[in-house]
Specification:
Blueprint: E1 5-7, H1 10-13, H2 22-37, E2 42-46, H3 50-63, E3 68-71, E4 85-87, H4 94-101, E5 109-113, H5 121-129, E6 137-139, H6 143-164, H7 190-200, E7 207-212, H8 224-237, E8 241-247, H9 252-265, E9 270-275, H10 279-284, E10 291-294, H11 306-312, E11 317-320, E12 335-338, E13 340-341, H12 349-356, H13 362-371, E14 374-375, H14 377-389, H15 391-409, H16 411-431, H17 451-454, E15 468-471, H18 480-489, H19 504-513, E16 519-520, H20 521-525, H21 533-545, E17 549-551
Helix pairs in contact: 2-16, 5-6, 8-14, 11-15, 12-13, 15-16, 18-19
Length: 560
């Protein structure tokens, strides 16, 4: 089994938004790549409702016309067993594992994926305590991302062993699969290059340097190292440099800080700011550039898709030797990796403490860490100067990068790796032992218990299989349907809708069958198929609540 239902919510895949982030771009790109390159005859959407399913189906029709799309509603997770796997566009498979445990833990696999690991490390800990099974996985987009996940899970597992005496703390599989791109979308002809450069006033002999991504000094890449290095490269080479920053600011204050910073730290470089949220900018601006740069120094980054996009566009890259960046660009081959440095481990516990205590927001937390991350400005200046002065070197590195992007990072090469992981999880599910099997008399999630179990001490008594029920004496068979409809139409009873009680057809069937001397609850349940009996059992008390039925031998209320 190599297919999976895709958990679809627009927040995981939609790029037409003001708060655009890398995970949105990555999610949309993955979905398009999946449709185009999975080779599947049909797709499965795990969504909250028809509207989300329609959006999913529209995307599928656009990129893989003629394929079937099936809806697997989130309200019916047991149906996922037909497919065998659920893919979640984030690492939080723990909540899905708890839902699965209430049904059949061997029914299907769960597969998540890392994006930013710095925002909620405590949430990663849930992977150690949730009922994650040997047939589950969280794909890491880089070895650096995997190392950051293990840096949380390993000491937390140690704590659980010390605190609780746990002999084993099982974890999900953590396969490493990079993000991908549609490399064909980054090929541009000379006419497009000329038009884009002319529109920005960039001369043929000028050097255009492109940064693409969020323009955030505290949450993406602090720009001062880039500004200083470009200023030095311009001074050293005598070339006219243009720095195209195609991105978006979180607010006007950040925008002002960037524009003033460019004037202050690289006054001889022409700083151009473009709104990278616009599709026409995000897709065409690559054509204008001679080289790409991204001196990321922020822990929120785990992979970094823009260097891969730059390679696909045939641009040499000047990037930091940081996180997943070092796994994409080969130093001296596809571009240059600029050294970075952090203080030693153990010197920043107060950062974590202030964030955990709510004294710092997430932005301040990662911004503080960025302030103690250094990028080698001299090495960056050397790289910029070498590429600016040597068009042949730019061309050679750009061609090497494009070949690498096509071979290793095109979705055509990446999607089969996802299918392989899902296939391997299915094989494991066939033979591996189940971890922490659920006892039949216990809830699947003890921290989200059945309220009728949690509060079982509250009532005088419980409905039992031997309880004999009668239809209310004043309720004629001919009026049952109208009485039920009026009851459920009353705004006071709005919470009875949406699966709280059995459908009206089952309730009518029961009420019509409760002629004197009535029936025991065990006999009433046999009136409906087995899969609907649990719902009917609680619905009988609902009917008692409004006086439609009563226990034999007890006084009955009045129906008006």
């Amino acid at each position: 089994m190599s297919n999976a239902a895709i958990y679809f919510h627009p927040d995981g895949y939609e790029t037409a938004r003001a708060d655009l982030k890398g995970r949105h771009v990555a999610g949309e790109s993955f979905l398009v790549g999946f449709f185009r390159h999975s080779g599947l005859n049909g797709f499965a959407c795990h969504a909250d409702g028809p509207e989300q399913a329609r959006l999913f189906a529209d995307l599928a029709a656009r990129h893989a016309p003629g394929r079937e799309v099936a809806l697997y509603p989130t309200g019916e997770p047991s149906r996922l067993a037909r497919l065998g796997c659920l893919f979640v566009p984030g690492p939080g498979i723990d909540q899905f594992a708890w839902r699965r445990r209430s049904r059949d833990q061997r029914g299907y696999s769960l597969c998540g994926i890392t994006h930013t690991t710095s925002e909620s490390p405590h949430a990663l800990g849930a992977l150690a305590t949730a009922p994650v099974q040997p047939w589950d996985a969280v794909i890491c987009t880089s070895w650096a991302a995997r190392a950051s996940v293990e840096a949380v899970l390993a000491p937390y597992a140690e704590y659980l062993r010390d605190r609780l005496g746990a002999a084993e703390v099982p974890m999900p599989h953590l396969p490493v699969i990079p993000l991908g791109v549609d490399t064909g979308a980054f090929r541009f002809d000379p006419a497009t290059r000329s038009a884009e450069r002319a529109a920005l006033g960039i001369g043929e002999e000028d050097v255009a340097v492109l940064f693409m991504g969020r323009l955030s000094f505290h949450a993406k890449a602090h720009p001062i190292a880039m500004y200083l290095a470009l200023e030095e490269a311009a001074r050293r080479t005598g070339k006219r440099f243009h720095l195209i920053q195609a991105g978006w600011f979180g607010n006007d204050a950040i925008g002002t800080a960037f524009t003033q910073g460019a004037r202050r730290y690289c006054p001889s470089v022409n700083a151009i700011f473009l709104d990278g949220r616009k599709p026409e900018v995000r897709t065409r601006i690559w054509a204008a550039a001679d080289l790409f740069t991204s001196l990321v120094d922020n822990v929120q980054e785990t992979f970094g898709i823009t260097p891969v996009e730059a390679m696909a566009a045939g641009l040499p890259c000047v990037i930091t030797d940081w996180n997943g960046y070092r796994e994409t660009v080969r130093d001296g081959v596809d571009g240059f990796r600029i050294p970075t440095i952090l203080p030693p481990p153990g010197t920043g516990p107060d950062f974590a403490d202030r964030y955990a205590a709510g004294l710092d927001t997430y932005d301040y937390f990662i911004g503080r860490v960025s302030q103690v991350t250094a990028v080698d400005v001299a090495a960056a200046a050397d790289a910029y100067a070498r590429l600016a002065a040597d068009p042949a070197l730019r061309r050679r590195m750009g061609e090497a990068g494009r070949a690498r992007a096509i071979a290793m990072f095109d979705w055509k090469a990446i999607i089969p790796q996802y299918l392989d992981v899902w296939r391997q999880l299915a094989e494991i599910r066939n033979h591996a032992a189940e971890r922490a099997p659920r006892r039949p008399d216990r809830d699947g999630n003890p921290l989200r218990p059945d309220p009728l179990r949690m509060f079982e001490s509250y009532p005088t008594r419980h409905l039992s299989p031997s309880t004999r029920l009668l239809r209310a004496g004043g309720l004629a068979r001919a009026g049952i349907a109208d009485a039920l409809a009026a009851l459920h139409a009353d705004p006071l009873n709005s919470t009875a809708r949406g699966g709280t009680v059995s459908p009206a057809t089952d309730l009518l069937l029961v009420l019509e069958a409760l002629d004197p001397p009535g029936r025991p609850v065990s006999g009433i349940l046999t009136l409906v198929p087995e899969e609907r009996r649990l719902l009917l059992l609680r619905s009988l008390v609902h009917l008692m609540k409004y006086g439609f039925v009563h226990e034999a031998g007890l006084a009955q209320g009045t129906i008006s």
